Here is the input.
Amino acid sequence: MHNSILDPKSISCPICSSTTYKPIVYLDQGRVMQTCLACGLVFVTPSWTGAIAKDAFSDYQGWPEGISGGVSDRSNGLIQISQQIKKYVQVSNSNTPKLLDIGCADGEFFRLMETQGLLFESYGVEPDPKWNQHDYGNATVYHQLLHDCQFPNARFDVVTILDAFCYFPDPIVHIQEIMRILKPNGLFVFDIPGQLYLHLRGLIGRVLGMTRTHTFAAYPFYYSHKSIRVLLRDLSHKIEVVIIDRGTAQEHTLLEFAMLPYIQMIKQSSRLFTSLREASPKLIYVVRKL
Here is the structure.
């Protein structure tokens, strides 16, 4: 990423274009996390664009170690996602449906889909060069950014971005590209961390002396539900379901023990107040292209 002195008048939200924002976290190399006061998106400045992302992933060292950063167990959420996809496959007219997983890393999701008995023609996009020589079995993986792949229109039945949506540069441009390559009636599935949860996790984590308590320091974007709606508003779509997920396994025994009743509480309370979904560790979105 690049050092930059920003003119405050030049900053606008990459989702809703509002210039009403406030800085909330100051990172290294002159980067600042801003929160949009109009749609609730938290975004980095200087802007995380496709050109900067390509340069960053060529020698990727990771962001500061914040909440949601690092490698951890996501199996519970991946199983929930595979179950949602299975519902779609049961009504699909495709003989061999095509799945594209963007940010597929080591191909964990491909393997899980197979164990769930879901047979797809699997493709992946993974720009991080550490996976260039990885064996993905029957899956075809492209080691470049999505736009560089030049997929044809209406190529895929399902497109997933799992634990990587918040790294996606130029959000509006890339969402348009996903909808272009997705078949009519196809599914777009992605997950994001809940903003309210991150605040709570950071506060409790500091009290318990945990690592990874630096809130809003692991990704260039943190979405609110409102910002997701704004991001999708000009596209022909339907949000089928938003699933509250427990996220990764907790490093502290006390938090791990408390997670199940906490999730149940969020599920119950969010039926009355949908804004409380933001207290979920992960929110899984299942979006259908119309």
Notes: Residues 75-195+222-289 form a domain with the Rossmann fold fold (CATH 3.40.50.150). The CA atoms of residues 124 and 185 lie 20 Å apart.
